[in-house]
Write a structure and sequence with these properties.
mainly alpha, 20 helices, 70% helix, globular
Length: 480
């Protein structure tokens, strides 16, 4: 893997993203479905790669593109490496630039949202592990920890699925990463499609509080463009560029957060190897990205204590996260193995259908009973996030509440601050497979079932039976 091949691989990803954006602007179906350009670009890369173009040309009698499609093997090797690196950057910035709220403040605004979010996340483990115990393991011969794929692919998304590659490899299930990436693609597309269908249903039946009939996104919004009169700066120049480029400064903060996470993970790996590695190993299989998030929290505590000049800009951090996530998604999809999905098509479909039914069913039947007010706007964002990424939930939330007049947006933000350290790529996601492999699926199933029952009880019996605050507040929403 030469420096030239690394550089060209990165440049080609930029070209593919630009082509994908042009497709998004011109393709009406992609606009109506709000398909992100990174997904389109990943699809283009997949079409031109060995699993589609290579197989088609081989079937026609030419092996010229069989190994790497239009690309080179070295270029694909670079792309396979990028997701595991970039997801640490994304998670390290989840809390940077966001004021960390007190527990009382977060609980007051986001208590119902957190109960519903916990229900969705823990339920994905419960239904997934039950599916693995009853069908995937005895019928298809998959490992029982394949039941975690729903939460990894749906709640976690492409970044988490890509970041778990080494964990799948260490436990002898390398195809699990491809299945998780496939589920992430199904989840994000289904989240948008099903979400828009449910919003239309909510408008027609009067279940939406703000969105009325015939209120549709503008043409520019569907194309992913911002009208001139509504454009804003992508970041604030908090330091003078003559001293240091602001983007460089914020990249440095992300780098410090990732390095702190690496040091923490290295310490726990050393401690584990010295004390209990002979019995079982946990931290040896934990990827870096959830610990990088802890590094980001520590850096944010330092920022709140010492950044008197307020030089850390939240929007600048979000731009770096967004860049990393776009590159991550297109690289992950471009190297997705369709053969692994084809070889496990039955389990893949069962996992996808089970995950979709759980998320949609929870929204339709539980959200209105767990939310004290504005249940549709609150629930649609959580449902979208549980099927794709945070951006999916925010897209649906902004469609249902375009002027952000309900408490849904701040509640969603505070819920993410409490939920993301554990689910959707957090500590629980990282530890789920090692725990099941070392101790059996029953322990994780019991823990998630307890959490599910507790979340349902709090939501249904406490928050769902009292009126909630009507005045919207403001809160940060971490990028996913």
């Amino acid at each position: 893997m030469s420096p030239d091949s690394i550089g060209f691989a990165l440049l080609l990803l930029g070209v593919l993203l630009l082509v994908a954006k042009i497709i998004r602007v011109k393709w009406r179906l992609a606009q109506k479905l709000f398909i992100p350009s990174s997904i389109i670009g990943g699809g283009v890369a997949l079409l031109l790669g060995p699993d589609i173009l290579g197989r088609i040309t081989s079937a026609l009698g030419s092996d010229r593109f069989a190994e790497a499609g239009l690309f080179s093997p070295e270029l694909l090797d670079v792309w396979r490496t990028l997701p595991g690196l970039l997801i640490s950057m994304v998670f390290a910035g989840l809390f940077l630039g966001h004021r960390l709220p007190s527990l009382r403040e977060a609980g007051r605004v986001a208590g119902p949202q957190l109960a519903f979010g916990m229900t969705l996340a823990s339920g994905q483990y419960v239904v997934g592990i039950l599916l693995a115990l009853l069908i995937l393991a005895p019928v298809f011969g998959l490992p029982v920890f394949s039941g975690a794929l729903i939460e990894i692919g749906f709640e976690g998304g492409h970044g988490t699925a890509a970041g778990m590659g080494d964990t799948f490899e260490k436990f002898g299930f390398p195809e699990g990463q491809d299945l998780a990436l496939g589920l992430a693609t199904v989840g994000i597309l289904s989240g948008i499609i099903v979400g828009i269908v449910l919003i239309n249903w909510g408008v027609r039946t009067g279940k939406t509080a703000e969105l009325k009939k015939n209120a549709t996104p503008s043409v520019s919004e569907q194309a992913g463009l911002v009208e001139k009169e509504r454009r804003r700066s992508a970041g604030t120049l908090t330091v003078h560029p003559s001293s240091i480029e602001p983007l460089t400064l914020h990249f440095g903060l992300l780098a410090v957060a990732v390095i702190i996470g690496w040091l923490i993970l290295s310490f726990f790996k050393w401690l584990e190897s010295a004390l209990w590695a002979d019995s079982f190993e946990l931290f040896a299989h934990v990827p870096l990205f959830p610990i990088a998030m802890i590094g980001g929290i520590l850096v944010q505590f330092a920022i709140q204590a010492f950044d008197r000049h307020e030089i850390v800009d939240q929007q600048m951090i979000e731009r770096l996260q967004g860049f990393s996530l776009d590159i991550l998604i297109i690289a992950a999809l471009g190297t997705l193995s369709l053969q692994a999905i084809a070889d496990n098509l039955g389990p893949f479909l069962l996992l996808a259908i089970t995950g979709l039914l759980w998320s949609i069913g929870a929204f339709v039947f539980l959200a209105r009973r767990m939310m004290p007010d504005y249940w549709f706007e609150r629930g649609i964002g959580d449902m979208g996030q549980s099927m794709g990424v945070t951006a999916t939930g925010l897209i649906l939330l902004r469609i249902a509440d375009p002027e952000l007049r309900t408490p849904a947006y701040p509640a969603f933000g505070y819920k993410q601050l409490a939920l993301e350290p554990f689910f959707g790529g957090g500590l629980v996601t990282a530890a789920a497979i090692p725990v099941m492999a070392n101790f059996g699926a029953g322990w994780l199933l019991a823990g998630m079932l307890t959490l599910l029952i507790g979340s349902l009880a709090v939501g249904l019996l406490h928050f769902g039976r009292k009126p909630g605050p009507k005045e919207p507040t403001t809160a940060p929403v971490p990028a996913d």
